[in-house]
Q: What sequence folds into this?
């Protein structure tokens, strides 16, 4: 099983498909690299090298007790890119992974990076404040942590409904989407689950986004019930100097896995890659 051992000795699992210019996928919470399988196959089939890793505490990676903060996640990503000697990389990040991507650029720059894709990303700031009235209330974040600590298996089943918009009339989300979400979520450690909420709920990535000097595609559903578009994507496109925003009407947070939206995203992604 391929692993990258980080500077602090944590084994990070990754999958590496195809050959060509590298496209590195960064998963959301509480998922793992498997969430990107459709996109990984598409880019590999198109002549790229698709790489996706399980964040520490998630999937097949080690589950240390500490290190569930964005500086650490960004440095883990840097370890992966450095150990594989990846250059001219397109970074593609979903949800919480958008914070990892942003912090990576904030800390390590873009010398290895060609372009970036932020999908349903948490950037620049999730928390509802006076300056970010469309954000997620602090009470909601506390309820998420309580749900994980209370009975996480049922909690993940419940969250999957909003994640994929399965509670909306006419939703194309499948039971398979929801089952896959639950399966991946149950492979995240409970410690990682709770600590990641603290990280993505309260971190502000505005300063990181201002350091982007690469073409950036932002994709977000306007019915995202997890990461509100007005608090994130609509602000991020104004901060990043060379960014464009594509809004998917009626799409959910997990749009890259839902039939219909998934195919649309694959087309937008490969177009952005220059296929």
A:
């Amino acid at each position: 099983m391929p692993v990258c051992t980080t500077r602090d000795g944590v084994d990070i699992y990754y999958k590496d498909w195809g050959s060509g210019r590298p496209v590195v996928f960064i998963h959301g919470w509480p998922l793992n690299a498997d969430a990107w399988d459709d996109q990984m196959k598409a880019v590999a089939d198109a002549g790229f090298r698709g790489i996706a890793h399980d964040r520490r505490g998630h999937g097949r990676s080690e589950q240390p007790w500490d290190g569930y903060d964005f500086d650490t996640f960004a440095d883990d990503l840097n370890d992966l890119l450095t150990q594989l000697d990846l250059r001219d990389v397109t970074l593609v990040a979903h949800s919480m992974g958008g914070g990892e991507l942003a912090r990576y650029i904030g800390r390590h720059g873009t010398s290895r990076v060609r372009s970036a894709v932020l999908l349903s990303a948490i950037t620049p700031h999730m928390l509802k404040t006076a300056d970010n009235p469309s954000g997620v209330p602090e009470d909601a974040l506390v309820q998420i942590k309580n749900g994980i600590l209370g009975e996480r298996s049922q909690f993940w089943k419940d969250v999957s409904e909003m994640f994929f918009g399965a509670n909306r009339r006419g939703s194309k989300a499948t039971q398979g989407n929801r089952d896959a979400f639950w399966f991946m979520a149950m492979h995240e450690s409970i410690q990682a689950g709770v600590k990641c909420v603290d990280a993505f709920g309260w971190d502000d990535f505005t300063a990181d986004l201002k350091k982007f000097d690469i073409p950036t595609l932002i994709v977000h559903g306007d019915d995202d019930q997890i990461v509100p578009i007005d608090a994130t994507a609509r602000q991020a496109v104004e901060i990043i100097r060379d960014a464009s925003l594509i809004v998917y009407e009626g799409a959910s947070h997990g749009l890259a896995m839902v039939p219909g939206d998934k195919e649309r995203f694959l087309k937008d992604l490969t177009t952005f890659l220059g296929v």
Remarks:
- The mean pLDDT is 97.
- Strands lie at 3-5, 11-18, 22-26, 49-53, 89-94, 113-119, 216-221, 243-248.
- The first strand starts at residue 3 and ends at 5.
